[in-house]
Design goal:
By secondary structure, this protein is an alpha+beta fold. Helix content is 23%, strand content 23%.
Amino acid sequence: MSFLLRFSGPALALGGVLIVVTVSFGAGIGAPYLLGVALVVLGLVGQIVSARRQRPRRQVEPLRIGVPVTGRWRGLNSPASTVPSHTHALAQTYALDITHEPEGAPPRSMDWLWPPMRRPEGFPSFGRPVLAPFDGVVVEARGSSRDHLTRLSPWGLIVMVLESFVRGLGTPHHLLGNYVLLRAEADDSGLDRPVVAVLAHLRRGSLRVVPGERVRAGQQLGECGNSGNSSDPHVHFQLMDGTDITTAHGLPFEWEYVTEEGQPRHGVPANEELFTAET
């Protein structure tokens, strides 16, 4: 079943192409058109089934890990506000996005009129160090995807929606961009499967680790970028219970951080909550 579900994206794409081509050339409702419809239906069903299969199977206590950044950041798309925070697909049930916002920097906001897109180098998050949240072994690492222009305007969001659909038809790295998958060196959680961290949307050419390398908590893995399915430079972080992001299940986690009011806290920041990594 898992093998067939992997082809749901390509089936959806091929079906869409067949429908568009047959309609464009006025071929009518023939075999190619019906095949296209069938592939689209199978692709959609496959993606729905795949996401449902990745729902967490049982409740587990959040795993306490290190914060993968330093400095002052803002939480986005947080599991502290909504679960799933993103979607169950690709083990993103408890995923969290964070963007760097140093003292005095303007808050992240939309470019409603101009410019339609901006270079990522102008954002505080771009180039910030991304750190290992625990001792572990690098399972996968990719660092060759480009850092694209931002998508923080109405036109940019339209482009991003179209991009997201196309990226979702391919393999997960099209969505993650540059990323590191880090498997915990030791599993003290009581789970019967590994604990794997995903750190995504990293800057092209910034990775400092390779697959198979052992790293220590706090060691720099790369830098924040704007690769993959990203509107603006930020770090996408999640935990999962396996090394295959297409079949694993998301795991909850918690950090030690300091709120904007100076209060120490265990957990994850909520949507739009400012926090500073506890050192």
